[in-house]
Amino acid sequence: MTIASETAEKSEDSPTVSNQPSHGPAQSPVRGILLLVASTVFFSLCDVITKHLTATLPAVEIAWIRYFTFTCIVVPVIMLTGGGGLFRAKRPGLQALRSFGIIGSTLFFTQGLRYLPVAESTAIYFISPILIMALSIVFLGETVGWRRWIAALVGLAGVLVVIRPGTDAFQPAALLPLLGATSWAASAVVTRRMSGSDHPLTTLVYSAVLGCLVLSVLLPFNWVTPIGSEIELATLMGLFFAMGQWLVVLAYRYGNASAIAPFSYVQLIWAGTLGYLVFGALPDGWTIVGAGIIAASGLYTAYRERVRMMQARRSLSDQAPDCTTRNRGRTARL
């Protein structure tokens, strides 16, 4: 899970992708994929430490440590590189709304880790691409073909396989990462609504700073002083989170979103592996099957999004010669 809009679960939701400056680095899809995969390792490590800390620290405090560490890193870096203008947003209201969605997502997911294995929480959270699609229909008026509707239903079925409502295996806590995914999807829809009005780093800064400020208000009511190794682990968690965020930004500077975003599903593998190595929590068969269904649904959704974008570009290129011909005709008449 990331603050940056360019996460695994979106292809065109990413401001870093859609608004890449023309003077940026040359496209290198392989490098972008490797950077994105590396980011999933850091996020998985962050989630494992988060789960360990939830045994003694409140979710608000853990989330605050993440945001505070990231803010302390990203803000000075941007200021030192002469990016002071990036702190001015053209649509601050939408930036704030987006930030609130991400804060809610972080809190729900962190609280879910208190009760659920890392692999199960991660698998449920990866339903977010399907939720983004559904919310985009309602709030953005986007049209979705029958293929993506089927993919959405398949993804929902995968979530049901993981949480198994109505059975003895069902845990109400499984709704927490689902709520987190919904909050994240809402923030992604707001990102689309902004339509690249602000620089991607402006969006990143707003998310980090506002998240830190909001959680700082809640912190006095949810503070438990870390002791012993908790201090080192909390610091390490914040650093892993910041490193993952930065790698995501770099990944989408080198590669097109629709090409590299599907590789974020490799995080399901890291989540299951690290959850077993650290906590001895081996995902059961249902969780593995459900995670596979969710991943397949998300990958197909990303594929259909890529096809849709290619068709749109092809349509524009087909119209271009007609426009040129008409302009030439006007010139001749003049």
TrEMBL record:
GO annotations of cellular component type: membrane
Pfam families (alphabetical): EamA
Keyword Transmembrane: yes
Residue stretches spanning the membrane: 33-53, 65-87, 99-117, 123-141, 148-167, 173-191, 203-221, 233-252, 259-279, 285-303
Domain EamA: from-to ranges: 31-163, 173-297
Region (Disordered): 1-25
Key words of the record: Membrane, Transmembrane, Transmembrane helix
The protein, known as: EamA family transporter
Lineage: Bacteria, Pseudomonadati, Pseudomonadota, Alphaproteobacteria, Hyphomicrobiales
